[in-house]
Amino acid sequence: MKILVISPQPFFSLRGTPISTLRMLKVPLDEGAEIDIVTYPIGEDLTEWPNFKFYRCWGPTYIKTLPIGPSFSKLVLDFFLFWKALSMLRKKKYDIIHGMEEGAIMAYPFVKMFKTPLLYDMDSYIPGQMADHKFFKFPLFVKFAAFLDKKTIALSKAVTTVCHDLTLKVHEILPDKKVYQIEDTPMREKDIPLSKEEKESYLRQIKPNDEKVLLYTGNFTKYQGIDLLLQSISVLVKSNTNFSLLLVGGEEDQIINLKKDCSALGIADKVIFAGKQPKEKMNAFFKLGDVLVSPRSLGTNTPLKIYSYMESGLPIVATDRWTHQQALNKECAMLTEPTPEAYAKGLQKVIEDDTLAKQLGDKAIQEVNARFSNELFDKKTREMYAYMIDNEPIRN
Hints:
Layout: E1 2-7, H1 16-30, E2 34-39, E3 52-56, H2 72-91, E4 96-100, H3 102-106, H4 108-114, E5 118-122, H5 126-131, H6 139-155, E6 158-161, H7 164-173, E7 179-181, H8 196-206, E8 212-217, H9 226-236, E9 243-248, H10 252-265, E10 271-275, H11 282-286, E11 291-294, H12 305-312, E12 316-319, H13 322-325, E13 334-336, H14 340-352, H15 354-371, H16 374-388
């Protein structure tokens, strides 16, 4: 099986979509499939599989990083990515084009030209992302994106989604479309422990008096709700000071701005920033925590970190929104209204009730093992690729 992956992301990097993509590609890679990936000139080449080849498009040298979501830099790189993918298809015959997000849209003419079946990997709903963006939210842009998205869904042989919300969107557009809903799984990487010096340093900051540690891991993009979290902490300290908040992730400029926010809220002494860390160290940070927090305030996709949160066995406090409800329920997590007062109340309940905390953590482990296991993920992925390479004709 020969697969061309069109990945309009900085692949590989520690972001949700590249992590999800790699997890899915591991299944055919481990079974000997030849996979070529065309991607941006930003990211890390992976050398674990000899049958996994990287081909990077050209890009202006001033584009060294990319924000999460739509951007003008992304549009520029997508132009060059299109031509790189076309050149690959002219040189080599593939069994499947695996298009990630707008990579599937740019593959639309390739399906017509080369009669190669398209797998649309929908990690997000592009028109929805544009509608939420400050520069791309103009109705004409959003309608055009929705038109292209609908045409691509119709032409694709199958669509794979990462959560029920995206499956519903596909079926709103085309009710009979073949969809493989393959939720993410807990990230299981080779663990790298914290050094003795690192561990002692963090413990001095987060547990000087044996406080409970609230732990957040992930990026600091606005939709994650970090502002809500900090406001909640400013409410919580009025009734309980036996805790500290450890934030793992974020860019340097974001951390600088959030430290200013903490000072303004009077909680600078309760919040510790660990900065960006390798994914292999996440389990080490989980071991420092007592309560995991996910205050996401925007969006509908299930956060990738939720599955690792669930597997950790630590209690989770999350906003009671559709983004979390697709994986969590009130038996396996403390779900609260997305307000500072409600979120602070949820945190306080879990901090002060060890029995409740253990019940939530134990139930989360049961839930993730039953619904989001690696075995189920691999089974669905094999079925999807088997469907993609059968002898059904490509629609014109």
